[in-house]
Amino acid sequence: MLAFRQLGFFILGLSSLLFLQCSKPQYLDEFTEVQEKDSIAARYLSVESINFGLPPWGAPAEIEKSYGPFLKYLSAKLGTSLRLYISADYSMLLTDLKENRVQFALLPAGLYADSLNQKMNLRYIASTVQGNKNHYRGLIIVRKNFPGETLADLKEKKFAFVEKSSSSGYKYPLAAMIKSGIHPDKHFGQIFFWVPTRSNAVLRGSIDGGAVYDDLLENDESENELKILFKTETIPFEAMVSAPATPGRFTSKLRYLLTEISEETRLPDGTKVLDSSKGIYFSGFTVKSEDFYSFTREIDSLVRQYSGDTP
Questions:
Q1: Which of 97, 124, 237, 278 makes the best surface tag, with the fewest CB within 10 Å?
Q2: Can you say whether the dihedral through the CA atoms of 172, 177, 180, 185 is positive or negative?
Q3: Within this chain, do residues 264 and 185 fall inside the same structural domain, yes or no?
Q4: Residue range 54-70, pLDDT digits in tens
Q5: What is the DSSP letter of 67?
Q6: Measured distance CA(246)–CA(101) in Å, rounded
Q7: What are the backbone dihedrals phi and psi of residue 125, each rounded to the nearest 5 degrees, phi first?
């Protein structure tokens, strides 16, 4: 199954390595057909204002292909349009929610933990599931012929994290390193930030090791040429949330609709609403408590303390 959890913007010249640079958010307007304008949603919010936010998990066209049927389905059921809004970067999505540019969003666990620690008062709606799984892991990968077997063996090597708001690609691996007494700035020879949609940078030797999420490796044709050096603790899947200004009654309706969706749910033309072959990795939603994300909040606090940040 394909997934689009991790991306950045300024390419270093190595096809998979990059530094992060903000750009303007991207709107995808194909899914703006409005039905039943007298619905509860339309009474509370103007059609133009209802934006469904995602982090930049992949190329806009790929995200549009993945989430298009999902948004069409919800738009029809809610009787108003949900417009796909791709934020400039992970952290900007929280700003977009806070300033009501986005009314609903799907947040990675680490980003949701940020919002809880910052007391943003986002309204939790539901969490994604993948079959019977409600979590995933981060992995640190190296070439199969890499002589070491532990994180300590990456000393003085070139290593790549994903964007700093990524749970599997930054926060959880970094927290594990800190707990093991490894300080990345001193431990690694060079640190990069990369887009691990494929692992060629590791295979080519551009970097010696990198952080990825487990589903990516399962879908990577180069898997047999790589080995896993480390697995993180389990990471909760994404949380669907609403902005503080979004009416609670509308949020409750969305929660009901999400928990009714399954892999068998289809649009009137037969199109699957959640289609893994088109890159949407989750198979439904479940409702959890805030405690489900408590360990992620601890990880977030540890990383902030290490980085000298304040919530």
A1: 278
A2: negative
A3: no
A4: 988 878 888 999 999 99
A5: H
A6: 11
A7: -115, -55
